[in-house]
């Protein structure tokens, strides 16, 4: 197919871009909400547990001490932002490289159209089984209609995505990619922008 031929990259350029794009995508999924309490945040009184001298015990100044059970945590996690930014040109290069590698490996199947008569999962699953024998399948369609969305929703190993929102991580994660002709053309247009 002529579209597939235009997308192929013969050299190794772009491998680092793919790695950077995937790392950034996974980092951006993190919420960074892990948090432990420091001494000022632990509930408790400010009273000294016992007098400084004369008891025979070690000196203690606070019930919130990290040494005590129920006390604070030393150097614990604090809320932080894990997000990474990837330049547009690097993102485009990574997308081009990932798709060309999948095309070279023969993991991309192009179909003319993916229209479903109803929203039932069973016929959709049977159709996918005929098309591509794989454990996990990414379906890339240009206009994703409601029937396609609803039919695929109950299949844990199948993901349906629009051509303008497919990312590098999705292209690499699935065993097979089933794309409509119009979706592949849209993907090619996305890669020629930068």
Protein topology:
Blueprint: H1 2-7, H2 15-29, H3 88-105, E1 108-111, H4 121-131, E2 137-141, H5 146-152, E3 158-162, H6 168-173, E4 176-180, H7 181-192
Parallel strand pairs: 1-4, 2-3, 2-4
Helix pairs in contact: 2-3, 3-7, 4-5
Account of the protein in words:
The protein has a domain at 8-30 and 82-192: Ribosomal Protein L4, Chain: A. The protein contains 7 helices and 4 strands, in the order αααβαβαβαβα. The chain has helices at 2-7, 15-29, 88-105, 121-131, 146-152, 168-173, 181-192; strands at 108-111, 137-141, 158-162, 176-180. A 4-stranded parallel β-sheet has the order 1-4-2-3. Helix 3 crosses helix 7 (181-192) and helix 4 packs across helix 5 (146-152). The chain starts with a helix and ends with a helix.
Any key phrases for this structure?
4 strands, 10% strand, elongated, 194 residues, 7 helices, four-stranded parallel β-sheet, Ribosomal Protein L4, Chain: A, single chain
Percentage of β-strand residues: 5-15%
Lateral arrangement of strands in the main beta sheet = 1-4-2-3
CATH superfamily of the domain at 8-30 and 82-192: Ribosomal protein L4/L1
First-last Cα distance: 23 Å
Q: Using the coordinates above, name the CATH class of the domain at 8-30 and 82-192.
A: Alpha Beta
pLDDT average, as an integer? 88
Spell out the helices and strands N to C. Answer: HHHEHEHEHEH
The shape is: elongated
**Proportion in helices:** 25-40%
CATH architectural grouping of the domain at 8-30 and 82-192:
3-Layer(aba) Sandwich
The number of helices is 7
Q: Structural class of the helices, strands and pairings?
A: alpha/beta
The largest sheet is:
4 strands, parallel
The CATH topology of the domain at 8-30 and 82-192: Ribosomal Protein L4, Chain: A
Radius of gyration: 27 Å
Count of extended strands: 4
Low-confidence stretches: none
């Amino acid at each position: 197919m002529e579209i597939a031929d235009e997308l192929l990259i013969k050299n190794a350029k772009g491998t680092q871009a793919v790695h950077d794009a995937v790392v950034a995508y996974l980092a951006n999924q993190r919420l960074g909400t892990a948090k432990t309490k420091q001494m000022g945040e632990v509930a408790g009184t400010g009273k000294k547990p016992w007098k400084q001298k004369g008891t025979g015990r070690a000196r203690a100044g606070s019930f919130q001490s990290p040494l005590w059970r129920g006390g604070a945590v030393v150097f614990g996690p604090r809320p932080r932002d894990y997000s990474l930014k990837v330049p547009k040109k690097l993102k485009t290069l990574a997308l081009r490289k990932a798709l060309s590698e999948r095309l070279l490996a023969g993991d991309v199947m192009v179909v003319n159209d993916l229209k479903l008569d109803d929203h039932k999962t069973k016929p959709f699953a049977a159709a996918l089984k005929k098309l591509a024998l794989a454990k996990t399948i990414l379906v890339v369609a240009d206009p994703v209609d409601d029937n396609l969305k609803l039919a695929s929703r109950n299949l844990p190993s199948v993901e349906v995505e629009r051509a303008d929102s497919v990312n590098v991580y999705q292209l690499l994660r699935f065993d097979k990619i089933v794309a409509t002709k119009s979706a592949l053309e849209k993907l090619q247009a996305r890669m020629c922008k930068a």
